[in-house]
Amino acid sequence: MILTILRHVLRFLLLIAMQVIILNNIQLATFINPFLYVLFLLSLPVHMPKLLLLPIALITGLSIDMFQNTPGMHAAACLLLVYIRPYWLKIISPRDGYDTDTEPSIKKLGFAWYMAYASLLVFAHHFLLFFIEVFRFSEFLDTLIRIGLSSLLTLLLIIITQYLTVRPKSSN
Amino acid sequence: MKLLFQLIWRNNFTLFFLLLQVLCFYLLIQNNRFQQASILNATNQVVTNTMEMVNYVKEYIHLRDNNTSLAEENARLRSLLNENKYEIDSLFIPVKDTVNLQQYEYITANVINNSLRYRNNFITLNKGSLQGVQPEMGVIGPSGIVGIVNHVSEHYCTVMSLLHKESNSSVMIKRNKFFGSLKWDGEDPNFMFLNEIDKTVPIQKGDSIITTTFSSTFPSGIFIGTVVDYKVDAGSPFYKIKVKMALNFNGLSHVYIVRNLMKEEQRKLEDKNKAKESES
């Protein structure tokens, strides 16, 4: 139990650091920006109490916000992500349900399932994030393109990260 | 009553979500209001320490570009020195200059955090209130204006970059002194758009764009960029002028914070007008 919590805290710190120190400094095209840190929220256990998800998302979002000088922006997007998450998990649940202590990952639940799971949540997160940022609908199409491209890049990074960090079977 | 509590309890997840969402939007709006003090802005200790570390590494990557632009600026300023001028009048007598009074002072600063990727971008600098930085001071780079200071802590300040939705600097065409406002459309940080220039004004590709004389934030006549393209929207009385920025926001490292020594005086004077208006 303690180990599980420790693992999540460690993942939180690593992903935030990665986002702030590396990803925020990479300019691909000027308006494509991946937000890999959402992987932390995606990897929280399936059966986590719903009410606990929200404060965790708030803290995650605000930590990123502090580094970007955008208080509330990432936090709002993270909140939306974890709000949708339980419902989406229910809709796409495998036929025999989830095991207790399952953490969503490609390894556990398969590539196709994970893509379905992650793509909607990442898109929802990016959608709210980019629209709060622009705060108007006059550049709707531009913003939508940004959202689409950034979501794709985030997904790609999430997949790569998952394959890079597969732990040896014995430790599970 | 019991039913009400039941309803609230059953939807506690949604209600809690909405409550926190409202909190987020409150923070967001509070921060967007210009120079509102807030605990969660990027001038706090942890954030700035990390950023300074990251920037320490990043500075090396852009070292060559930065050296070039600083050297260019030096050359330009050196050519303004009196030693480089040929005296046409042989009856030249040095006098104490009482006509010109120092109006602007510059504080050098290093960029420790910069973003180009957002629709609204901010820059963090390593100078703060202890060095005399105050909100609403202008920031200029080696070639052109960068933005306006919005938050200040003891050792750091954040700057609302020109690459921001709310950024709206008044600039003019050097050749004929017509002025308009410079805005960013959120796409390419190398290009900005000059609006509110009347269709009847003659304009050419290659015209220089400089800062105006009536801004109290920036000294006048700072070169900003050149016109690369302009078009006329049907139904609009104004041009849409595309300006190539002289300043390279990517890799920006050394900047100057502009202190206008007469800003207070100008503001007091203008406030008097406002006070009179409200009285009458």
Write structural notes for this entry.
The complex is a heterodimer of chains A (172) and B (280). Chain A has one domain (2-171): Arp2/3 complex 21 kDa subunit ARPC3 (Orthogonal Bundle). Chain A is 68% helix and 0% strand. Chain A is built from seven helices and no strands. The longest helix of chain A has 25 residues, at 140-164. Chain A starts with a helix and ends in an 8-residue tail after the last helix. Chain B is α+β, with helices and mostly antiparallel strands and 280 residues long. Chain B has a domain at 41-74 and 102-261: Thrombin, subunit H, CATH 2.40.10. Chain B contains five helices and twelve strands. Chain B has helices at 2-10, 12-32, 45-61, 63-78, 263-279; strands spanning 104-114, 122-125, 138-141, 144-152, 157-161, 169-173, 179-183, 191-195, 208-211, 223-232, 239-245, 254-260. At the A-B interface, helix 3, helix 4 and helix 6 of A face helix 2 and helix 3 of B.
Please name the defining characteristics of this protein.
heterodimer; A: 172 residues; Arp2/3 complex 21 kDa subunit ARPC3; 7 helices; B: 280 residues; alpha+beta; Thrombin, subunit H; six-stranded antiparallel beta barrel; 5 helices; globular
Continuous helix count of chain B:
5
Query: If strands are numbered along the chain, what order do they take across the biggest sheet of chain B?
Result: 1-2-5-4-3-12
Biggest beta sheet attributes of chain A? none
CATH topology-level name of the domain at 41-74 and 102-261 in chain B? Thrombin, subunit H
| Percentage of residues in strands of chain A | under 5%
Radius of gyration of chain B: 23 Å
Q: Based on the structure given, which CATH architecture of the domain at 41-74 and 102-261 in chain B is correct?
A: Beta Barrel
Q: Cα distance, first to last residue of chain B?
A: 55 Å
How many E-type strands of chain A?
Answer: 0
Oligomeric state of this protein: heterodimer
Mean pLDDT across every amino acid position of chain B: 80
Structural class of chain B: alpha+beta
Distance between the termini of chain A: 13 Å
Total number of helical segments of chain A? 7
- Which overall shape of chain A is indicated by the principal axes computed on the Cα atoms? globular
- Could you give the order of the helices and strands of chain A? HHHHHHH
